[in-house]
Amino acid sequence: MTKKTDKDAPRESSSWTGPAAIAGAAIGSAALAAALLYSSRRKERAEKAKPKPPIDPIETD
User: What is the pLDDT of residues 12-57, one digit of tens each?
Assistant: First the structure.
């Protein structure tokens, strides 16, 4: 008698691991894109919020 392994077992046609892996990759890439957009927008806002150097007033007599 021989032992049966996963390779010997017939594959089920309703396996959901493939679509789940694809969905996980899609969700992960969307999360990465959102994080990059958020960080770049936050950086732009921080640069806008920096105070501008004061301009010396014109001296008059």
Answer: 556 889 999 999 999 999 999 999 999 888 888 888 877 777 777 7
The amino acid sitting at 15 is: S
What Rg value do the Cα atoms of the chain yield, rounded?
30
Measured CA to CA, the distance from residue 53 to residue 43 in angstroms comes to 19
The model's pTM:
0.48
| C-alpha–C-alpha distance, residues 2 and 8, integer Å | 11
Closest by Cα among 38, 36, 54 to 46: 38
Tokens standing for residue 24 = 């996980």
